[in-house]
Automatic annotation (TrEMBL), chain A:
GO terms for biological process: proteolysis. GO terms for molecular function: peptidase activity. The keyword Magnesium does not apply. It comes from the Bacteria. The chain crosses the membrane at residues 12-43, 55-74, 80-98, 105-123, 129-148, 164-181, 549-573. This is Transglutaminase-like enzyme, putative cysteine protease. It comes from Amphritea atlantica. Coiled coil: none annotated. Keywords: Hydrolase, Membrane, Protease, Transmembrane, Transmembrane helix. The lineage of its organism: Bacteria, Pseudomonadati, Pseudomonadota, Gammaproteobacteria, Oceanospirillales. Residues 401-473 form the Transglutaminase-like domain. Signal peptide: none annotated.
TrEMBL record, chain B:
CDD domains: AAA. InterPro entries: ATPase_AAA-3 (IPR011703), CbbQ/NirQ/NorQ/GpvN (IPR050764), ChlI/MoxR_AAA_lid (IPR041628), P-loop_NTPase (IPR027417). Keywords: ATP-binding, Nucleotide-binding. This is MoxR-like ATPase. The keyword Methyltransferase does not apply. Residues 35-165 form the ATPase AAA-3 domain. Residues 229-282 form the ChlI/MoxR AAA lid domain.
Amino acid sequence: MKPLFQLTRSSMIWLLVSILMVTAPYATVVPGWLFLLAVLTVGWRLMVHSGRWNFPHWSIRLVLLLLVLVGLLFELRSGSAMVITVSLLVAAFLLKLTEMYRRRDALVVLYVALLLIVCSFLFFQSIPMAFYCLLSLVVVTACLNTVYRSQQNSDIWRPLKRSAVLYMQALPMMLVLFVIFPRMGPLWQVDLNTGQSFTGLSDSLSPGDVSRLTRSADIAFRARFDGDLPPENQRYWRGLTYDRFDGRRWSRTELQQESQTSLLTQFNSAYQDYRYQIVMEATGQQWRYGLDVPLSFPATMSRLSDLTLQGGEPLMQRTQYSLVSRSAPVREPLADGHYLRYLQLPENGNERARQLALRWASEQPGVQAFTAQMLTFFARDFRYTLEPPLLSGRDSVDQFLFQTRQGFCGHFASAGAFLLRAAGIPARVVGGYLGGEMNPLDGALSVRQYEAHAWLEYWDSEDLSWHRLDPTSVVAPLRLEQSAAQLFSSEPSFLADSMLMRTGFLSGSLLKQLRLRYEALNYGWHRWVLNFHEHQTGFLRQLLGEISVIRILLLILVPGGLVLLAVAGSLFIRRGPRKDPLFLALQRLDKHLKQRGMQRLCGETPGQFFSRLGQVFPSLSDEFTALSRCYEQISYAENSDPQLQQQFRQLINRCCTQIPQS
Amino acid sequence: MRDQIEAVIKAVSSVLYGKQEQIKLALTCIFSQGHLLIEDLPGMGKTTLAHALAKVLGLDYQRLQFTSDMLPADILGVTIFDPSSNRFQFHPGPVFTQLLLADEVNRTTPKTQSALLEAMEERRVSLDGQTHPLPSPFFVIATQNPVTQQGTFPLPESQLDRFLMRIELGYPDARAERELLRGGDPRERLQTLAAVISAAELEQITQACSAVKVSDSILDYLQRLIAYSRQAPEFSFGISPRGALALLSASRSWAYIDGRDYVLPEDLQQLLGPVTGHRLRAAEDIGGFGANALIQQLLSQVDVVG
């Protein structure tokens, strides 16, 4: 039987640290019972290492494997495929520990550990995680180092130092490759977030929904403007519109895409354009946020007829895009179908509200007069609160308008749109965000979930345009001018999910400074590291002029080749012959002698060689004797007399010229 | 000073014909303050050479014939109770001399062989808790029969390592043999030898030898030789640092005898066999018959100029 490979002590320690570091991030991802497997296999391997137990019999390993497979099959019913796949990898990684006989097995374990480090990026992409993974890499490499080191080395830290030095040396190469290596599209894509819930707007709206979002301080998206920022009361971030009302909930119907140019002509160029980039968090939904009204947008996105933006597919990871928006009313000659759609109301219900709308319409005709009436109505008796009484009745609009009279933006938008439609004015509810917090450190605007907002738009038949109307602006004018955090600070439900966040958002304290700093860092991280491929093309174009495979290859190969050449050169210089004039002169003689087939033998001393030459060329016998004496004096007696050197060179010259050519 | 060396060589040659080379080697060994091991068949003139050297160098000497029943006390001396003075008194053994001729050193048991170890290395004798310094200078010239002969206890490596050099005499050539046969008993001529140099002169020569210049290129060559002996698979072990130092100091003395004040690669090549032959062991050589073929290989495989 072959002798078993015995891991050294330091190797074992590093292996355990590697396993711990590599599997720790998965604790929140993989099923909990894998922890038991980890304890079992690691414990068993330790007992084997200490010589107390044997490796498990193959039947035990088989049973373990089957148990794991069955367990994972059960998990398949609840978890996503990706999580199960990764769990399988982790389980295989742990099981391999129990059959680590040879060095090759240890290498397999470590290579899988490297794979696991990479896989953890599927689930976590934050800055701390990146550093953690880098640390794991260093540790695993240190472990690889110890596996190859056969003799027992008592210094445990040495491999770590070695590995850290290796990574430091690799760092410049990594940076270069990061910047210039072309990002290729994935060969396959995994849907990681299936079954995962997102905080944010949903595709239907009932009046209480938005206030639920105020419990969350998660970032919805961040925006960085190239020029001016829109004034605070104009920061309406459009998400989606709701056009169908069932008496309680607003929902949306599928809309057609709209070509970009058809709208463009209808804009009034007197309004200001805003140019900005948005880094949007994953929502699991198709819509994308943009300021009212998006004018130009990336080709991967499309604009619907309700002027909302839509991406090609549900947004599963943080993404970045650039937009140009113009804050202006939009002309749209409503076709019949559209016209009716924006007037849709349930057959009956909310009768009092309908009557109120009809009465206003008959008292003072005209859309402007109606909206003015409505705003006055809201401004008079209504109160803005995050915790409105529950609207439990069947006629929720009536209940809100005539009984509770307390509500959040959703209530006002919903009721306003109802009134407008009841009076025969096309209207829709718009969901999105209002506001945004300026981070002075990086100049980016963070828009958070608690800034979610709902307003409405009505269509004016006089100018054939959609106009924005925000009833909240009259009920709670402060909502538009202050940050939402300031406004809501007195509300107990605001950010109720996290006391720490509440303090961080409300006070102008150190905590807030820290938070802003971290967010700026994170934003840069997302913008420049995770989404570098967005900038890469531009950067490469700046560098290369025109991007082609040849140019990129040259960009990688030429500096790489230069570095290798420099290394080779330094090695050559170090290993090369000494630049001793004496030595060079001798070399010259050697060259001449070689033509005559004469060469100093290995192990032949210069003295012996010269005397042999003297016998071969009797005419030069005296010269060679003198040469021998000179060489002896210079090389061995260390006589540094310049005259001697001179004499030596002369003798060499004479020999070189007088050696009879064959 | 050189004339005296010439005279010494000449005087010894008058007793041992045709062995100039070996005489020079023996002198090299003494000038490097090392111990000499002469190995050859009986009757080749080992003892004659040792005797002649002792006489010519004017050293106080003792001859010790090693036998298989010899004990350490026979070499080192013994402490005996003296009833007249009522005290223990140390009676020094034959080792307390300037030149010790250890004849047929491998005929005695390892126990007795080891008794010489401290004397040779530390130049002192420890007995009954007391340390007795040996006279200065102190040389051991040991002779031994080849290990293949019967009734021998091969010297262990640690003991061999104490000898700076091991030389062989070999048969004399025809002319020297003729002279020897014609000249009569060498032992008689040995009696007529007188000291050529004094102890003080020997000391001077020793100092002059150690001042001989060794250039960097010589050290490079020496290090290449050492490295080769340690790496090549033919050697079961390489030249030890002590071996390297021995080679260097012997080369200095050899160069001095040759009339130079600097060492040449030729000196190293000349002395590599005598100085390291008994320290090296070929990988296949289980019996330890020396490594002369290996020395030749070493010389032909390692380049002199780097």
